[in-house]
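Let's practice the habit of predicting before peeking. Look at the sequence and jot down your guess about where helices and strands might fall. Then scroll down.
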Amino acid sequence: MSLCDCGWELAPGARFCGRCGRQVAALDQADAAPDETPEPAATEALWRQPAWAGPRDLSGPPSTRHRRLPVVVITSLFLLAVGISAFGISVHYASVSGSSLAQYRPEPLATPVPSATPLPLSDVAARSLGDVVTVQSQTDQGEEFGTGWLLDKKGDFVTNYHVIEKGHSLRILDRRNTVHDGVVMGFSAQDDVAVIRALDGFAGEPLVIGPGSDPPVEEQVIVLASARATQQSDQTIEVLVRLHQPIPVQNGSDLGTQNSQVVYSDMMVLRGNKIYRGNSGGPVLDQFNRVIGIVTLASQSAPQAFAIPIGRVLDELRAFAARPTPGG
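Done guessing? Here is the structure:
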């Protein structure tokens, strides 16, 4: 039996006095209660106590700590992997170049440009036909049709003078069948060339003009035309066989003899496929997508045609287009 200093009788194994609350001095091992080891349920309760309950006893069951450790590690690794992936994605999108994005943008429409290497003539036609138009001239006898092609960004078109010679009004029809009123900016009856302008403008890139030097002979070329004017195909493959040839013409309609009224000088000779009346004024393009001539004459009895070399009349055509107002 033990007594507290205040005289209170202490129960066996008690550590505090029931009267004054004073802590009782530690008992000898022999006087200790026979079993002071907490029950397993009490030990488990120590691991479940809230954080504010004081320091936890880490000497709890090792099996409980081992069960929680893999969960913590796996969760940490998962969060780390998500963070790295998100960073990688953000870096990828931040570093996407304009060239990578360009593949998702629609490509611009093809415009006539010179090629550094020879192209298939079908590709040349595909690039340039958008700038070839129908020239419709209203005369006292009816309508005359010919072909024209875009010279510059102001809406100036090249054609033959004989296409518009007798007309008192002009219209230009593009490949979308849009009608543009036209006016003559200038012409040369001697060279049989004229420049007409679409009064409302014309959206397109001009055809590329070839060099003033002589093109090679025995070379394939392509003649473009208004199918409305020719009632035939809008492209014809020919072979350029001769340069600088004088061509006598009778009545402006067919090849004549040396006694004909008009002689066209310094002409290109084309052979291969038939050229029609509506081809007049159409461009002759080489395999580098460049205009090298203007179709002017054709034989009615043979697959042979004649074109004005572009180098001979280019300065004249540009002078017509440079005029501030229409002129004769």
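How did you do? DSSP finds seven helices and 15 strands in the chain.
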